[in-house]
Amino acid sequence: CVLCGRTDDCPQKYGEKRTYMEKNLTVHYYCLLMSSGIWQRGEEDEGVDGFLITDIRKEVTRASKLKCNICKRKGASIGCVAPKCKRSYHFPCGIQKECIFQFTEDFRSYCWEHKPVQKFPDKESRGTSQCTICLDLVEQLPMYTVLKSPCCKNAWFHRECLQYQALSAGIFFFRCTVCNNKDKFQKEMLRMGIYIPERDASWELEENAYQDLLLCYQHCDVRRCLCKKGRDYNEPDSKWEIKRCQCCGSRGTHLACSSIKSWEENWECVECRSIFAKSGNYSKRKKPSLTTSEKTDGTTCLSEEPSPKCPRQSPGSQHNFLQSPKIMCQNNLSPCSHLELPASNRVTMSLSPLMSNRNWSQRKKYLRNQRMEASNILKELKLQVNTKTTRLNINSENIWNSTLKGFRQRNFSPTNTIEIKFTNCKNKLGRDTSASKRHFFQLLMHHLQNSSLFEGSSAKNLSLDFQAVKENLYFEAGKMIAVSLVHGGPSPGFFSKTLFNCLVYGPENVKPALEDVADVDVAQTIKMIKYANSLPSLQSAVRDCYEFLAAAGCLRPVTALCDKNMLVNDILIHHVIKRIMSPLESFRQGLKTLGVLERMQMHPDAFSSILCHKPERLSAETICDLFTIHCSSDVNEIEGADFWMGYLQDVESGESVVTLEDILLFVTGSFSIPPIGFDPEPTIKFLNISYPIGNRLLNCLELPITKTYEQFKNKMDITIRNTLRVERE
């Protein structure tokens, strides 16, 4: 730069660096604006934005005779405008020395001694608060690097954050981030040396930035699309024309897929229909025709086909029994769950009295159905995963850092098949691909649940960890959860309803509760206000926590006892939601991996069942349904199936040294059923072997054929217990 002599190219600090080869001239825009001896004498398209080239050279000659009071070199083109002050300096030197440059009116400059400062009342409390732009802490002190909003009492900013905001927003959109005041805010910021460019906001200048708004939604979203050409196929004036939801416009259906006879017929998507149902207005609306896969109450049927399993009853008994296991005939491997065998060979092992009661609560049935729907959705998402493999070398004793390193390596892609190698594990768990991967995701989810990224006891919300925000760890956590769900790992199961609703519906539509506050002191403060039973006691509680309320921006006049409700609501929204907006947005971006967040927003009930609830406790019936038995018509193998069912019942009733979780772990390497299910599906084979074998690579349980049930039970107990004990050691 001909004025400051520096080669730095930093538009945020020195303005745009412009070079004119034909004139042999390079200059920083801010150096030119603030130089004391030059004015715009030309039109905007002449010289450098109206500064004539001859005038610039004259200014360079004038400045060459002046020494900078900061760096002691010649070329100081800027002088302090304070009366009797003789200081001159380069623009970059002035920035370094914390001088103030006013980019308005006469473009005045003030040295470090005469610069304007913001005035603060003596009674105003000092401390720290959040910069509402970067959400990092800022000292409430009259410093050059800190600026206070002139229109909001508790709004403090870093100078650097404000300058970046001004450059991005421009003169039309730069305003207070708290109260949206524009005129008063801009006037004060210009006085304190913030440059506000006279142009539109950067997001308004992007080419085709809003092009997507002109596109009509063209996708069939019903559960079962009947169009052979795909969900995106749209043929106007035919049964394959796509009609959008009349309420939200963000969901669609082929006319044929929803049995719509004409274009004029109204249609609402499942989400909108459920909203109307909850509000009580749905009955007043004309009910549209539904697909065979959708219910009229806004929920989705999981299957129309009758289950091939049916409960049996032994003669003379009114108790229910375990459903018969899925059995594949060996000759053609076709399902024949009703066992085309004599009745004497069928499995008729009854459940214990505790488990024979099939009067499940509506809640359990609902969650089970939603988990089945979530499983189907995740299986669709898994179709994105290709056969290309990415190996992650994981240290189970340092699961977080080794996972973070693996996810950030250059060749990692969520769409690749993941292979896990435990570097500190010498047994077979470190080698088996499927089992080690499930074990890896279990360790990872357990670490996340207890990490500093979340707070709360059982139902957790995001915490505010400034270091984690800087290192982008919230994004990585969201990405890890999305990858775990699609690649066959467990779900977190510890999300609070508030966190889940913030992710799905947006934080602006969520009302937090007192249970969401993990900080004991903050919870106590809220309780003091909430349970105040008189106006004096409420005012006393407000005075006691004045500093906290001021820092949170929740101060409001309290003139009646009912004011406490709004005050409590303000505190909850600040502490639970507004305080963690930056972590929440990063976490949301991470969950977008593999399209998981989008499906969460489309199917909130299904994903709530796996993200906000722990996996359903295993039962003998669950394990029975999970495994498919491969066998021939050999009577010994059918008797073995009898033994298997009886063994499950004994384990469930506590008559065995192992648990149902141990059995699942022995076969699959997982102590719970992942939301997406197992791949390949668990199977059972009866072989002439001495002891049972759990093949975790194929999820296959190979069982010995024995003469008596006691022999079968003894071999199962000994093998499973000893195998898992060795693995733990």
Which features does this protein show?
729 residues, Herpes Virus-1, Hect, E3 ligase catalytic domain fold, five-stranded mixed sheet, 26 helices
How many strand units?
21
Number of helices: 26
The CATH superfamily label of the domain at 366-513 and 580-612 reads Hect, E3 ligase catalytic domains
Structural class based on helices, strands and sheet pairing = alpha/beta
Give Rg in angstroms. Answer: 34 Å
Shape: elongated
User: Mind telling me which CATH architecture of the domain at 366-513 and 580-612 this is?
Assistant: Alpha-Beta Complex
| Unreliable residue runs | 282-321, 330-360
CATH class group of the domain at 366-513 and 580-612: Alpha Beta
